Amino acid sequence: MGIYLDSADSYELYKRIRFSKWFIDKTGIITELVDRLGTTETYICVTRPRRFGKTVAANMIAAYFSKSAESRELFDGCEVSKGTKYQDHINSYHVISIDFSKIDDLCKNYDEYISAIKKRLANDLREVFRDIDFREDSTVFDDLKKVFDSKGIQFVFVLDEWDAVFHMSFISEADRARYLLFLKNLLKDQAYVAMAYMTGILPIAKYSSGSELNMFLEYTMAKEERFGKYFGFLQDEVDALFSIYSRDELNPRITIEDLGDWYDGYHTFLGERVYNPRSVIAALTNNNLGNYWTNAGPYDEIFYYIRNNIDGVKDDLALMISGEKVRCEAKEYAATSMNLKTRDEILSAMVVYGFLSYSDGFVMIPNKELMGQFADMISREASLGYVYRLARESEKVLEATLLGREDEIASILECFHDSEAPIIRYNNESDLSVIVNLAYLAARDRYDVHREDKSGKGFVDFIFYPKRDGEPGIILELKVDDTAESAINQIKEKKYIQRFTGKVAEIIETKRVVFVGISYDKMNKKHTCKIEDVIVGNQ
Q1: What pLDDT was estimated at residue 152?
Q2: Nearest in space to 45 (alpha carbons), one of 190, 226, 176
Q3: Is 210 helix (H, G, I), strand (E, B) or coil?
Q4: DSSP state, 359?
Q5: Maximum Cα–Cα distance for the chain, whole Å?
Q6: 457-492 confidence digits (pLDDT tens)
Q7: Beta carbons of 318 and 420 less than 8 angstroms apart
Q8: What span, in angstroms and rounded, lies between the C-alpha atoms of 107 and 393?
Q9: What is the pLDDT, as a whole number, of residue 519?
Q10: How far is CA 228 from each of CA 78, 268, 337, 456, 514, rounded to the nearest angstrom?
Q11: How far apart are CA 383 and CA 378, in angstroms?
């Protein structure tokens, strides 16, 4: 067994997944791949954002095909074992598995990077096929061809994160062309290739306008139905995991609705809901809703995308952080650029890398987990102007609300609306809610904030559910060209508190609720605020 050839890593890594209590059977993809063996459709490239299970699937596929370890214990009883060709191909191939995102910490340039990969693969071939007389100066392509010519052996290639090299700081345009040529020579029109399964973030066509890798069939989240159900968790799969959680957790603190709010928001080509699998499992394991998004470099940092055109996207950020969607013509190709400039390029790249979701010409922040990432970013980056400054003032707004300082809240909102003149013009309550949402950004650390929550006899603009015992709740209603007193009266008349008390009683104890009415008079350009304290049960 070698580093790349017949490595035991895939078997051991997938074994951990297979025997986890949170295992979801995605082995059906193997049945689909097996059906392509011996055809011209054996070159497959699957692209998805990070954290959607591409590497898990790659390890699973390698573990099934590889001769390196007997793996029936991992697959017997799973979906793949129901296929008629299951026994014919399991543990039947020499598998070459390469994760192109792995790089030595001392690597300084492309030559060192690719030379290390070639050397490891050449050494593996010489170790496994000791009876073959390889030329000393031969290429890995020559070596693989010699194995095939001598023994008739074909290889299954499992290439994970194939496009990672394009995002490495030392890569030049010339290096990109050389890398594509390397893959072409390794895979294209080679009789030793039984199958080439490749994963990445962006489709091949976005990097190559030539024919280097045109033998691949490409499967993206947005444009292809095939293989869609094998990446991310679908709703029925999350339901199954939640049943295990409910059975085993002595003091469950998560609802199935919570998982949707926090980790849903993506869609397959057919419109099925898709959850972030890593975050769902982390939340259920920890019995805690939280931000499990991990950053692994600049392409995992939101500010990386917007830094070249902050003025072009800051109003969009304000709208999306407030729960709105914004129109955008998302283009996958934009994400290949290292120098994003136009608004559509920036938003498109954020869709491709999973920070935003896209549907029917609009982009949006998909869930509360990502909302937290955006909230952290706007609280750090002063270059975002009014968005940053209003977010920084949000601690004061929350404190003033809980202490009943009506004039202070109105004054803060007045200041930002007058001095910053954002694109939002307060034509209705929805526009006003964008600024108010930013003003209460800090509340998300202590509250679960819901917008347009159906309750009582109508809809309320915001309900703030406290996360800890003893914290007061907040119900906030907005008005344009009406009075703050009218907003308070609407909260009372429509009995919005019914929703609050019903949900909170299931989780924590709280006795105090703060009613907040905020209004804006367009003619006089004046904000007003009205606050009333209510004791639960006395209203």
Answers
A1: 96
A2: 226
A3: coil
A4: E
A5: 90
A6: 456 788 998 888 788 999 999 999 999 999 999 999
A7: no
A8: 44
A9: 93
A10: 19, 6, 26, 39, 45
A11: 9
> CB–CB of 36/195 below 8 Å?
yes
- Describe the strand order of the beta sheet including 266-267 as a list of residue ranges: 233-234, 273-275, 266-267
**What does the alpha-carbon distance between residue 206 and residue 332 come to, in Å, rounded to a whole number?**
7
Handedness of CA 189, 11, 201, 169 (dihedral sign): negative
Task: Dig out the tokens for 127 from the structure.
Answer: 């170790």
Q: What is the pLDDT of residues 320-330, one digit of tens each?
A: 887 888 998 76
Cα dist. 511→293, 349, 497, 500, 505 in Å?
A: 34, 46, 12, 11, 10
Tokens of 416: 């930002």
CA distance 306 to 355: 12
How confident is the model at residue 270, as a pLDDT? 81
Q: Concatenated DSSP letters for 264-286?
A: --EE-TT--EEE-HHHHHHHHHH
One-letter amino acid at 42 equals T
Tokens of 537: 């049960």
Quote the strand ranges of 281-390, DSSP E.
Answer: 326-327, 357-359, 362-364
Q: What are phi and psi of 103, to 5 degrees?
A: -145, 140
Between CA 178 and CA 165 the distance in angstroms is 11
How large a percentage of the chain has pLDDT more than 90? 54
Residues 305 and 340: beta-carbon distance below 8 Å: yes
Q: How far apart are CA 30 and CA 32, in angstroms?
A: 5
* Residue showing tokens 């009876």: 131
Q: Are 335 and 348 in contact (CB under 8 A)?
A: yes
Which residues contact residue 344 at a Cβ distance below 8 angstroms, ignoring those fewer than 6 apart? 328, 329, 330, 331, 334
- For residue 336, what are the contacts with CB-CB under 8 A and spacing of at least 6? 166, 202, 206, 207
Helix axes 256-263, 277-286, angle to 10 degrees: 140
Task: Give the residues of the chain that fall short of pLDDT 70.
Answer: 205-210, 295-300, 330-339, 417-431, 452-459, 503-510, 537-539
Amino acid at 249: E
Strand partners, 95: 156
Cβ contact 325:364 at 8 Å: yes
